[in-house]
């Protein structure tokens, strides 16, 4: 014969369910939400720093003004055609070398002055001084 517990014991045992206290769940949800917000904030900050570090500097160079100045200076000199061609080639090589050297040293992007309205550093005097130095050094 099997003994059955009386009705009062069965209802107590069957009706018992183990639940976590609501306060514990709320605290855990708040902690997870705070942790997720922290991770997202840190990720955004790191992304902004990396983007700023990787972005190159933009500078402007007055190519037209530099070439016009060279033309004015050569027009005032009494050079024959061969010497003028050699001087022009030397100027072109010096111009290319100066721009390439500046770009290699600074890693920036050089824009022509006509393409930029304002807000960019002008490196024209630096490049013109380097061109003048190269032109004087060359025979």
Topology:
Elements: H1 7-14, H2 22-54, E1 58-61, H3 63-76, H4 81-106, E2 109-112, E3 121-122, H5 124-137
Parallel strand pairs: 1-2, 1-3
Helix pairs in contact: 4-5
Task: Give a verbal description of the structure.
InterPro entries: TrbI_Ftype. The chain crosses the membrane at residues 32-54. It comes from Candidatus Pantoea communis. By secondary structure, the protein is mainly α. 68% of the residues lie in helices and 7% in strands. Helix 4 (81-106) packs across helix 5. The longest helix has 33 residues, at 22-54. The mean pLDDT is 82.
How far is it from the N-terminal to the C-terminal residue, by CA?
122 Å
Biggest sheet, spatial arrangement of strands: 2-1-3
Identify low-pLDDT runs.
Answer: none
Provide the structure class. mainly alpha
Total number of distinct structural domains: 2
Q: What would the principal axes of the Cα set say about the shape?
A: rod-shaped
Please work out how many helical segments DSSP would assign. 5
Q: Which percent range fits the helix content?
A: 55-70%
Average pLDDT reading: 82
Instruction: List SSEs in N-to-C order.
Output: HHEHHEEH
Give the number of DSSP strands.
3
Work out the radius of gyration.
38 Å
The major sheet is characterized as: 3 strands, parallel
- Classify the beta-strand content into a percent band: 5-15%
């Amino acid at each position: 014969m099997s003994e059955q517990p009386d009705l009062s014991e069965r209802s107590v045992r069957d009706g018992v369910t183990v639940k976590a206290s609501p306060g514990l769940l709320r605290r855990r949800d708040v902690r997870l939400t705070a942790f997720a917000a922290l991770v997202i904030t840190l990720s955004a900050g790191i992304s902004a720093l990396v983007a700023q570090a990787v972005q190159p500097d933009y500078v402007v160079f007055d190519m037209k003004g530099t070439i016009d100045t060279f033309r004015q200076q050569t027009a005032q000199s009494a050079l024959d055609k061969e010497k003028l061609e050699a001087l022009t080639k030397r100027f072109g090589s010096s111009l290319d070398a100066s721009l390439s050297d500046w770009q290699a040293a600074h890693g920036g992007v050089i824009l022509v002055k006509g393409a930029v309205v304002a807000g960019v550093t002008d490196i024209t005097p630096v490049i013109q001084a380097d061109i003048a130095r190269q032109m004087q050094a060359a025979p």
